[in-house]
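Annex B. Sample input.
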Amino acid sequence: MKSRIISVLIVFTSMHIMAQEKEPGIKTFGKAIVDKFPTTRTFDVQYEQLGPSNYNSDLFGNNFERGRFESHNRFKAAFNMPFYATKSKRFALTTSVRYKYESYEFGDIYNYNSTQNYSREREELHYWAGALTATYMSSLFKKPIIYNATISFDGNEDDFQRVKGFASAVIVLKRTPSTTITVGALALLDPSSIVPVTPLFSMNHKFKDSKWDMDFILPQRLLFRRELLENGRISLGTELNSESFYLNLSTSNLNGVYELNQLELKSGITYEYCFTPKIISFVKAGVNNVVSTRITEKGERTNRYVYDQKEDAQGYFRVGISYNLFQQK
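Annex B, continued. Sample output.
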């Protein structure tokens, strides 16, 4: 599931160059992508603060420890730049770079094996990733279709870790002034993926005689949105996000490089404000439910985890600002 959600975003990363195409279909589709995903814009910076929460964990299927996160925050930065496009703008190459910093502060921790309480120092983690994406837009059965192939590499502050690949095809089944529907398939060229091929589906619908619209992307989001105040927009709904990073561990039980993969279901409210056609900021707040937190050996499938953690729901607050070099008035 982690790879699926990340890949849905990567599939659309290079689409924003298509917004410059004179053909209405390509222009409309390209603008829709950067509108949905701030991380696909030229520059994007985000900061997130999560509230305190209790957790309980297992190691190799046995009770390990229970404790409390007193503070947890994230900082993210993304850069995307198309560097080649054909004259027709139907084929484009884009490079992307992402960086994430996470920090945890702990309360009391109880170890089930020693039956003792102890404390843990503040933990800081770094994650980076780069990608090269090729996008080609054509037609199939007189409908627009987008082919995409991506090779990505990532790591942490200690070293480069892994190379992954993704390929997809997405066709626009329907596009009217009120409704856009796309379907497709995504192939994950990653040995750690449980499902090598996954379906893609999205639907955006503007309700009749209403300022509201629905934005649905399987399996990532369900949002209801409307314009609010001048140059602003409000969204209500739920988003499924994925977080991951690498851990260099050296303990009696775990020794080597491991991956932590976490799925989060965020429900709440978002307000976006457009300072200029190129600069957009947002504020998000709501409830964060951690669906799954697992640690695996590097490159192993997530169902072969060595560590499993359950965590209570918590409040969250996120702010961000992005700049889109290719946005026109």
